[in-house]
TrEMBL record:
InterPro entries: BP-dependent_transpt_permease, MetI-like, MetI-like_sf, OppC_N
Membrane topology reported for the UniProt record: Multi-pass membrane protein
Keyword Transport: yes
Keyword set, alphabetical order: Cell membrane, Membrane, Transmembrane, Transmembrane helix, Transport
Gene3D superfamilies on file: MetI-like (1.10.3720.10)
Record has Transmembrane as a keyword: yes
One Pfam match: OppC_N
Entry protein name: Peptide ABC transporter permease
PROSITE patterns with a match to the protein in the record: ABC_TM1
Sequence ranges assigned to domain ABC transmembrane type-1 in this UniProt record: 92-292
Transmembrane segments: 21-44, 94-120, 132-151, 163-180, 270-292
Superkingdom as given in the UniProt entry: Bacteria
Length: 306
């Protein structure tokens, strides 16, 4: 463990991170947001899922610094009387979990397809890549909206609300796997003709072992960069679906459903219900994308300075 930590400290990745102020600030902000969201049950002033702690008479209260605000609710309350700080902390946790879950599903499907297509080649490669092309020809949000709407029509809104989190993970994951497949396939095509792969064939290793134990580790740098960007995309997709009423229900708030819930009140004066969740969402996506850009530059061998 100590040796691994020392190796990381001596690595170019850590050296580059220490010299990049934007990466340091982005990581610090992301760390704060993640800690706040996942520690919400411990540090949030109120539990937005506990009906006994919610008073409808406190609905649409402005932030504490405004004339009609209360010190009990720092950023005000939503239309249901829930404390906005607490609701955003719980909502951000859901948004992050859905984003991470969707990216894991994308990675599993896309990496498997890319490895098989790139290594085996031939007609199977053509079939899988045409399948990916067909998937990419449809906008991600269009696929997600279509699947979500079909499920709600077939099983009803109440059943959808019960399974909203896993369904959103599946919907967003299925819509974005071609990004991984195409990138991994390109990396595999560059790796499979190298000497270590030929040596593995000579000693009689199976195709599956060669693909997953030898070639896959050499494609992980590109996969890591894609994953960082895709987490931000998945969070935005969840927010967009929730804003359209096809994502998280109002009683299980995510950042997107909070923005949607408060949008109809924004012109009536209760602007904080939409504004503050929107700021948190933009900040979360921004810092993830900035870290993704930094990671892409660091892992690009053409930009390596030595």
């Amino acid at each position: 463990m100590k040796q691994s930590l020392q190796n990381f400290k001596d690595s170019y990745l850590f050296y580059s991170f220490k010299r990049d102020k934007i990466a340091i600030v982005s990581f610090a902000i992301l760390l704060v947001l993640v800690v706040l969201s996942f520690s919400a049950p411990l540090i949030a002033p109120y539990n937005p899922y506990d009906a006994e702690s919610i008073d409808i008479m406190n609905s649409e209260m402005p932030p504490a610094w405004m004339e009609e605000g209360s010190s009990e609710f720092l950023l005000g309350t939503d239309q249901q009387g829930r404390d906005l700080v607490s609701t955003m902390m719980y909502g951000m946790r859901l948004s992050i979990l859905i984003g991470l879950g969707a990216v894991m599903l994308q990675a599993v499907i896309g990496i498997s397809v890319g490895l098989i297509a790139g290594y085996l080649g031939g007609r199977l490669d053509n079939f899988l890549m045409r399948l990916a092309d067909i998937q990419l020809s449809f906008a991600t949000m269009l696929v997600a909206i279509l699947v979500s709407a079909i499920f709600q029509t077939m099983f009803g809104a109440s059943r959808y609300n019960e399974l909203a989190v896993p369904l959103l993970v599946i919907i967003i994951g299925i819509a974005e796997w071609p990004q991984y497949a195409r990138t991994v396939r390109a990396s595999v095509l560059g790796e499979k003709g190298k000497e270590y792969v030929e040596a593995a064939k000579v000693v009689g290793l199976s195709k599956a072992r060669i693909m997953f134990r030898h070639i896959l580790p050499n494609t992980m740098s590109s996969v890591l960069v894609i994953s960082t960007v895709q987490v931000a995309n998945a969070v935005m997709s969840e927010a967009a679906l929730s804003f359209l009423g096809l994502g998280m229900p109002v009683n299980r708030p995510s950042l997107g459903s909070l923005i949607n819930a408060g949008f109809e009140y924004i012109f009536s004066g209760a602007w904080w219900i939409t504004l503050f969740p929107g700021i948190f969402l933009v900040l979360l996506v921004l810092v993830i994308n900035l870290l993704g850009d930094w990671l892409r530059d660091v892992l690009n061998p053409k930009l390596y300075k030595g």
